[in-house]
Amino acid sequence: MGLRKRALELSEYRNLPLLFTRRHLSQDVVSANGKRAFLVDTLQLVRGLEAQGLPSNQAEAITSAITQVLHDSLENVSHSLVSRSELKMSEMLIKSDLSKFKSEVQSSQEHHFSLLQLETEKIRNDVEKMRSELRNDIEKMRSELRYEIDKVTAGQRLDLNLERGRTRDELANQSAETTALSNKVDREVHALKAQLEAAKYDVVKYCIGTLVSISAVGLAVIRILL
């Protein structure tokens, strides 16, 4: 806001040299060698009025009035004009203000640039800090994930080993039961074979006894018949 106000003041100062120049030219017209020079030829004006049919006294009165008005106007204008020294002083003030304004603008730019650099450095540090924190969080998550994976893998391996042990035990039990059943079947088969052998022996023995009995009966019958 201060720089904008300063710029508006300087923009107003820009119109001063033109005004001072116009006033200075008017002063050159009004003053010549330090004495006032009237721009009206009173004699020619009186003669002109007389040529228009006015009496001499009226023409002189009108000329005197015009001269007085012109004199008063020139006095008022001379009071409102400035001198060369004042004009130079004003130009020096304007140049000084302009130089001061430029220095203020440059200082403000340097200040804003330094603030921008500080903000940029702060943002860069914040970004680096966020990157570091994010990197640490990622490493932590990886470690936790690796730990969980190892934990699950170890649990699965333990379950697999237990399942293998159970399967091995079941297979061993089934093998023992199969062996016991095979031995039992073998014993029963041997027992049946022994029983069959005994039965065969009894049958042979019975057959032999029967044949002997039949032979004895036949011999007895033959003896009786003879």
Question: Could you please describe the fold and organization of this structure?
Answer:
This protein is an all-alpha fold. The chain has a domain of 81 residues. 90% of the residues lie in helices and 2% in strands. It has five helices and two strands. It has a two-stranded antiparallel ribbon with strand order 1-2. A hairpin with a 2-residue loop joins β1 and β2. It is rod-shaped and about 235 Å long.
List the total number of helices.
Answer: 5
Which residues sit in consecutive blocks of at least 5 with pLDDT less than 50? 1-38
Strand order of the largest sheet: 1-2
Distance between the termini: 173 Å
Can you give the mean pLDDT? 76
Structural class estimated from helices and strands: mainly alpha
The oligomeric state is single chain
User: What is the beta-strand fraction?
Assistant: under 5%
The gross shape turns out to be: rod-shaped
Relative helix content: over 70%
Rg, alpha carbons: 73 Å
What's the story with the biggest beta sheet?
Answer: 2 strands, antiparallel
Element order, helices and strands? HHEEHHH
How many strand units?
Answer: 2
Transmembrane segments: 203-225
GO cellular component, one term: membrane
Keywords: Coiled coil, Membrane, Mitochondrion, Transmembrane, Transmembrane helix
Subcellular location: Membrane; Mitochondrion
Summarize the structure.
The chain is mainly alpha-helical and 226 residues long.
Kindly list the characteristics that best describe this protein.
90% helix; disordered N terminus
